[in-house]
Request: fold
Amino acid sequence: MGVWSMDDITLTATSSTGTRTTITVLVVDDHALVREGTRELLGQDPSLEVIDAVGSGEEALEAVGVRTPMVALVDVNLPEMSGLELARVLHGAHPQIHVLMLSAYDDYAYVAEALDAGVSGYLLKTATAKELCDAVHAVADGIVVLDRQISQRLVRQRHSPTPSEGLLTPREVGVLELLVKGYSNRLIATHMSLGIRTVEGYVSNILSKLGASSRTEAVAQALRRGLVEVPR
Reply:
């Protein structure tokens, strides 16, 4: 699982055998015109299949019960149950679903809350059709995607040290940087010339020090606190 700006992504989903895989998508937006427009847009990519388009979080949960999508494209502003609330429910009950949040808000407070909710991507509504399709492919492939405007702001930011940052050893910071790049434990071990058990120990320590329950959450915490930069 890596974290990338939209500048870095031009992907086509493939299976382990190298053949093209159809990515199933659920669209969740309370505006009918937006829903249908998004369905039509995604339908232009033959490797994407929109299995349903609904207008609320409750309808989304019902749709997931009928057929589970690989990716849920969710508007942050939904009636009754917000997009963030829906993301938390899906992350807890259906962790195999990759949630791609679509939002008009570029304030990083929203982005951080979305990442903490377990989303796999955060895209602004100013994104192009190609960027949207590429982002769907990316999150389906296990990559956490941030909109270009947001990632550029993050790279420019300079954060003051936090208590958690000071608690990480130089070696743990090195492992964390590779986690953000999407390296598996085995790849980290090879890259850093360490044993796999040693790497597992470092990852466990990082999760504990950041108060994270998973690698995905650790990456979200690292980005939110400015412990690492978005790969460029």
Remarks:
- Residues 9-19, 158-165 have pLDDT under 50 and may be disordered.
- The chain has eleven helices and seven strands.
- The beta strands are 3-5, 23-28, 48-54, 71-75, 98-103, 121-124, 144-146.
